Amino acid sequence: MLSFFRELKEALDHNRPAVAAAIVRVSPGGYPAVKPGGRRLYYTNGEGCGSLGDPRLDALVAARVPEVFARRRPQLVSLTLEDNEVEVFLEPVLPEPKILILGGGHVGQKVAALAKEVGYRVTVVDDRPAFANPQLFPHADEIICRDFADALQNIQIDPATYVVIVTRGHRHDYECLRQVIGSPAAYIGMIGSRRKVQGVRARLLADGIPQEALDRVHAPIGVDIGAETPGEIGVSILAEIIRVYREGR
Q: Average pLDDT for residues 139-143, to the nearest whole number?
């Protein structure tokens, strides 16, 4: 049990997303090793620490973990292990939310300022020094001036990451979306007209990207408020991100 809490502290100290599972009730006549108080920590990569008393139960709970990450809310689940009912409480342990803005133009600048105002950690990527700089992004925690593809290979995207694709003239939207679509990001949004978005989707489908992966992409990005200016578009994007953060959708 001590190793569980040590591992939990490590996850918190290093901003590593996890789900903490704890047995709260076991039906009478079950397995002696499966009892209230059993705990296990699950990570996004499928690894974990501790045990709920039976590897089969560990596996049953592991199947529920992705949903907990997606909804970002605790769940009480009832599971059956050879006719024995076990209730397990699942609680997400998530670092501060992070926004990854791919594109340093006017919309990206507005999103960065708004995101920082409401408490997100902000990372901006652009391949142009004239746009990827502290003068345009005084609110950013990290500014990366590199080719988008190279930068994304070195950025950790986890269930606390919200990806905003707003590259100049949509020139790099396809390559950015292709690289992040398989990530565990909480949110992926891409700017563009419906025609442009459909074109990118068609290319990705032709490349073998599954339809269910494309369905999780918010495109066109943002809540429909009739936004026209960069500031209004920034508000609509952040509103959608906040809704996903709060409601898991």
A: 95
